[in-house]
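Supplementary Methods. Inverse-folding protocol.

Structures were first reduced to a discrete structure-token string of length 318. This string, shown here, constituted the complete conditioning input.
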């Protein structure tokens, strides 16, 4: 059995649900019983009433027989990638090696894997098995918050992430969740190091989920998230350097001297779209349809662009 996000399942012809937006990546989830205990996640320890959720998304379970023909539907419906996300399994990466082998038999689509790996060798084995990219998720940027929320050492996770990036250049990604105790300076400094190491960064806004220890924590302020998105976009496209950004008490206050020239680069609104692997759009992973949109799963319309840019620029000294 494998779990598939409700939107991906609709694209794959596995259900007839009408979705507000369809994904351009097929999102699969392996496992129920995660060995980790992240305070923001319904999969933690596998004991939660919200177990069928990851982010805001529900993940119904399907048999491999059902999946077999449905991946063809997915390719015809504009799906350009498979994203296999996984809880931390008791058998390490063995289940994942098996799933990747099955997926490779069923589809030509590139596979992104997001899993808890323990060393570089595991990353290499997973790539050799057929994953195109591997995400070594950081999730939490502030070291103390990391310890409290995920348990363990951020530095150790960073060491592994950078070691994987050196060993598998251009094939490593990470996930960062904003709104978990980090300052904008911390987030953008780390993003800059990741960009320099050719690690692809997928930004998320924290979503409080019922039944988790952080269910009462608020999501990040939208203007703060927009500043991090814009900074990430400018660093990633090499349009700006971190050394020109100015922070006050950890908050980004200006992109620096070149700020007026940077304005047109942000005008299209690409900075506010979902970031991460090619073809990954994750519709409504962070947001309710009709609610505040942190990551747009498609190009922004004019009104959305103007609103996002106004919020950003009004909050900065340009
Ligand atoms: S960026 Fe998207 S496709 Fe890549 S690992 Fe993250 S969720 Fe999956």
């Amino acid at each position: 059995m494998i779990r598939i996000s409700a939107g991906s399942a609709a694209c794959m012809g596995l259900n007839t649900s009408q979705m507000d937006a369809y994904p351009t990546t097929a999102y699969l989830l392996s496992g129920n019983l995660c060995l980790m205990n992240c305070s923001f996640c319904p999969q933690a320890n596998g004991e939660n009433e919200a177990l069928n959720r990851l982010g805001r998304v529900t993940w119904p379970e399907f048999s491999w027989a059902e999946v077999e023909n449905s991946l063809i539907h997915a390719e015809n419906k504009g799906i350009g990638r498979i994203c296999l996300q996984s809880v931390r399994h008791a058998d390490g990466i063995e289940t994942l090696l098996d799933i990747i082998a099955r997926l490779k038999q069923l589809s030509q689509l590139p596979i992104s894997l997001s899993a808890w790996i323990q060393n570089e060798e595991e990353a290499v084995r997973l790539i050799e098995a057929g994953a195109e990219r591997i995400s070594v998720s950081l999730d939490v940027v502030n070291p103390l918050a990391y310890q409290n929320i995920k348990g363990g050492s951020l530095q150790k996770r960073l060491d592994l992430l950078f070691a994987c990036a050196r060993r598998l250049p251009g094939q490593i990604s990470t996930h960062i969740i904003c709104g978990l105790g980090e300052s904008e300076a911390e987030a953008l400094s780390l993003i800059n190091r990741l960009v320099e190491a050719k690690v692809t960064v997928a930004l998320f806004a924290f979503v409080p989920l019922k039944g988790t220890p952080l269910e009462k924590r608020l999501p990040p302020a939208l203007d703060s998230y927009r500043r991090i998105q814009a900074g990430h976009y400018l660093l990633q496209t090499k349009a700006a350097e971190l050394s020109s950004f100015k922070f006050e008490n950890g908050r980004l206050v200006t992109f620096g001297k070149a700020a007026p020239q940077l304005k047109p680069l942000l005008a299209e609104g690409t900075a506010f779209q979902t970031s991460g692997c090619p073809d990954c759009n994750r519709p409504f992973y962070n947001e309710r349809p009709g609610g505040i949109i942190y990551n747009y799963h498609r190009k922004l319309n004019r009104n959305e662009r103007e609103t996002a840019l106004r919020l950003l620029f009004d909050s900065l000294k340009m």
